Every structure is written in structure tokens, then in C-alpha cells.
Amino acid sequence: MYKACVFGDYDSIYGFSAVGLDIYPVTPETAKDEFQKVCRAEYAVIYITEYYMALLKEETEACEQKRLPAVIPIPGVFGNTKDGIRRVKRMVEQAVGSDIIFGSEY
């Protein structure tokens, strides 16, 4: 059975364990190795803070080339860069053929 996990700095992700998600708190120094381990695990969805999504751009893009896991950016305590929203918008446009959710907002 597939699971979901949350990857990022501890302060941004610790609350997700209360709803049953596995959490992977990392530092910038340990992020690359830990993300590669998480990608090899049996997760269908990896939620990752936008900060670490940007920091691990090459690794997240390589992971996205596979069928699973889906890598979904979420805002963290460092703020919302709106990269997550732009990414979801792009994915919807690819799937549907046009922007049916956001309009020209993002």
C-alpha cells in the first residue's frame, strides 16, 4: 500500500505527523541524501516545502520523471514563494489543455 510523506525543515512539517503522514525533517546539508532515500521508498506522494523544492531542483525533477511518487510543493515557515501554486497551475494546464482554475492570477 502506498503512503504519503512530508519533507522539509522540522518547524514546517512536524504537525503533519498528527494526521498520520510520515515526516522527514532535514537540514540543507542532509536534504539531498534524504530526498533520494525518500524517492526510493514506497510513497505515492511526497509533500515538500517550497524552500527544499528549490534547493533540490535537480533531484525533484529527476523524481518527477517517474510514474510515482508525485512531488507536491507546500509553503513552509520561510514563507510562500507561490512556486507551488504556479506548479499546480502548469500541471492542470498540461492535463486539461487550458487553465480552468486560476485564470491569469498566477
User: Which geometry do the CA atoms define?
Assistant: globular
The CATH fourth-level homologous superfamily? ATPase, V1 complex, subunit F
Instruction: Kindly give the count of domains.
Output: 1
For the sheet with most strands, the description reads: 4 strands, parallel
> What is the residue-averaged pLDDT?
85
- The residue fraction in helices comes out at 25-40%
Order of helices and strands: EHEHEHHEH
The CATH architecture designation is 3-Layer(aba) Sandwich
CATH class descriptor name: Alpha Beta
The CATH topology: Rossmann fold
Extended strand count:
4
Helix-and-strand structural type: alpha/beta
Could you explain how this protein is built, in words?
This protein has a 4-stranded parallel sheet. 40% of the residues lie in helices and 21% in strands. By secondary structure, the chain is of the alpha/beta class. Helix 1 links the parallel strand 1 and strand 2.
